[in-house]
Task: structure prediction
Amino acid sequence: MTATKEEVIAFMKSEFPQSKCVVEAVSNDGATVSHHVGQDELRPGGTVSGPVLMSVADVALYVAILGKIGIVPLAVTTSLNINFLRKP
Result:
């Protein structure tokens, strides 16, 4: 059972109203989310902070999973790791 973009947007708005991520696209094969980065989310030199990047990655994976299996609120990330090889 898949979830539509509209269903995912409604679910995210209801369950995660604090999220700054915007669901751009959802399909059976993946998802696209965006996040406007404000001044308070930057490190010195204009680098986006690691926690913001991890949050966006986590939301993108969650939205992609919901698009594939439908709205399952307790589908959770069990592990997420990132290695920054250069300044984002």
The helical segments are 5-15, 50-69. The chain has two helices and four strands. Residues 50-69 form the longest helix (20 residues). Residues 5-69 form one domain.
